[in-house]
Amino acid sequence: MTVTTALPHAYALALADQRLGAWLKQEGCEEPPPVLREPVVHDPDPSAPAPEPGPAAPGERLRLGGRILLDRDGGLLRGSRGTGRYDRRRLRTPAPHGTHQLTLTIATGAEGPTWVRLEAETHTTGNGVRTPCRVPVPELARTLLPLLDAADGPAAVQLAPRVLSAADVDGLIDELCDPARRLPTVVASVPLDRGLDAWVAEVVRPLCGQLPGLATAYVLDPSARTEFNVALEYHAVYGGAVRTYLPEVDPASRHDGARHPVLARRRIEEDVRRAAGLLAREPRRLAAEQPLPPPLAAVPVLRVPPPAPRAGTGPDDAAARAELAALAHEEQQDRAEQQARADELERARRSLRLERRRGTAQVRALAGRLCPGPGSAAAPGRTGRRAATPGAPGAAAAPGTPGSFTELMARLGEFPLLTFTGDQKAALALDELQCSGAGWARLTWDGLTALQEYAEAAVRGEAGGDFKQWCERTPAGCHRFPPRKAVRGESRTVFSHTKWKRERMLPVPECVDASRRAFMGAHLRIGGGRTAPRLHYLDDCSGSGRIYVGYIGLHLTNTRTN
Q: For the segment 329-360, what is each residue's pLDDT rounded down to a tens digit?
């Protein structure tokens, strides 16, 4: 388990020691004595040289209740100027055919939050083999999480799954796409033939029993399920299934959907206990393989001196000292190998991410050339806007923002990655509404400009999410479109209404959909009011490398239109 807390380092450590001491009392052991340490200097003399990285100070080993061993150490982080600190507790308890080991590390760097890492392992006697998939969630994790107000990037790490309504869907999507997220997110749906409360109590909670500290979990109520699946059509979850969303979700990519495993309702109901183990398999793997954040990676290898000799020198004492010395040597080797594996894994991941982005950009550019949109002579892989090809409708267009939809439609060739597939009559009719036509045209042009810049980044794999997230975090130097005017999808009522949904089934090339029609729920709000225009589009940057604009005109039919 690797999480953050907003609590100060000393406060988080005090809570951890308190809970650990309470557990030891339950096991019939005395509470360990407090740790005496040097005061930490938080504001060192700027003229003083930085301390040289050196070997970590040795910790202490306490024998509690027979064969229970508690190791404790702490100090300044390597190379820090006194602003970084770490503390560690390692507890070894006897187990059948081996030893249970629990390691709690709290580290705070010069900046940023306090990191808390809890490792539970089983060491088999003789060969040191670990079996992380068989180790249950430690009770210390269950008691610490609520006390620490633990977090993973933007998400709160809680013990039990949280039920979400339609109003929470945008926040969940932002959480899934946030690059700071390290833990997987488990999202459960509710079948149509089961009530929400009964399904959560009888199925979802037992199913998520092995996830505390390893993943965040949510349950979509019926209204949230529809909103979520309309917004994330390539990453949907429904029918009582549970889906695990790994870090770095790309909502605009249909290929990315295959990366996030789905656990079907049938497998869950066959054996909930076995399904819980299957669901926890991927979070456990990620927890074991992910590279450590910098403050935790800087924590030195645990060094514990041999315990002081007892009053006797019998063979039992010599055997105990030999056992402890062997354990210390094993720990040093294990920590060094673990960090080496983490460093190698991080280098491999960076290389794979770079190669994947390059390959994806090449595939998208090729797909765009094989499936060109009407009126777009520019190569989809090219970045930046340019004038239309000579002879095209927009070739002689004047620079600047169009003052009418007639001019705007003639200059669509200036957006090489946007393809208009709809009927121009609906857009040209907006010029007849003289009171707002010019303002609507300018706002529509702003939206098209932002869509073009987003598409240029998306085909290179650098957009960081869908168009709404692009609007919320527009990169410097790019055109900003108001995020509240960018809508991911239509409401549940519109999506469920046959006639209204049919109005939004708009033309696309055959390479996008064999039926030459696709539902375009994503849209831009152009102005306000009951009849204000809308621009409906389909983001296919992950497929053909283009965005298809299927409609520009007055608001299509819904509950507020006549």
A: 666 566 565 556 556 655 665 565 555 555 55
Count of all residues that appear for the chain in the document: 562
At 256, the pLDDT band (50, 70, 90 cuts) reads confident
Q: Are 424 and 390 in contact (CB under 8 A)?
A: no
Distances (CA, A) of 301 to 282, 335, 366, 475: 28, 6, 50, 41
509: β partners: none
Q: Which residues, at least 6 apart from 433, have a Cβ–Cβ distance to it below 8 Å?
A: 440
For residue 524, CA distances in Å to 65, 369, 489, 554 come to 67, 27, 10, 12
Q: What is the number of alpha carbons within 13 Å of residue 365 lying toward its C-beta?
A: 15
* Residue 273: CA count within 13 A, CB half-sphere: 1
Residue 273 has pLDDT above 60, yes or no: yes
Angstrom distance (rounded) from CA 237 to CA 220: 9
143 vs 79, higher pLDDT: 143
Residue pair 148/15 in contact (Cβ under 8 Å)? The answer is yes
Nearest residue to 132 via CA among 141, 123, 121, 142: 121
For the purposes of burial, counting CB atoms within 10 Å of the CB of 336, is it exposed (0-12), middle (13-18) or buried (19 or more)?
exposed
Angle at 293 between CA 292 and CA 297, to 5 degrees: 60
* DSSP structural state of residue 342: H
Distances (CA, A) of 549 to 158, 412, 447, 535, 536: 41, 11, 11, 7, 6
Q: What is the mean pLDDT of the chain?
A: 78
Query: What is the rounded end-to-end Cα distance, in angstroms, of the chain?
Result: 55
CB 524 within 8 A of CB 481: yes
The CA–CA distances, whole Å, from 443 to 401, 413, 482 equal: 9, 18, 10
Q: Report d(CA 113, CA 30) in Å as an integer.
A: 32
Q: Looking at 249-314, list the stretches that DSSP marks H as alpha helix, in order from N- to C-terminal side.
A: 265-270, 272-289, 294-297
Looking at residue 130, the DSSP 8-state letter turns out to be B
> pLDDT value at position 104?
94
| Of 2, 177, 235, 209, nearest in space to 107 by CA | 2
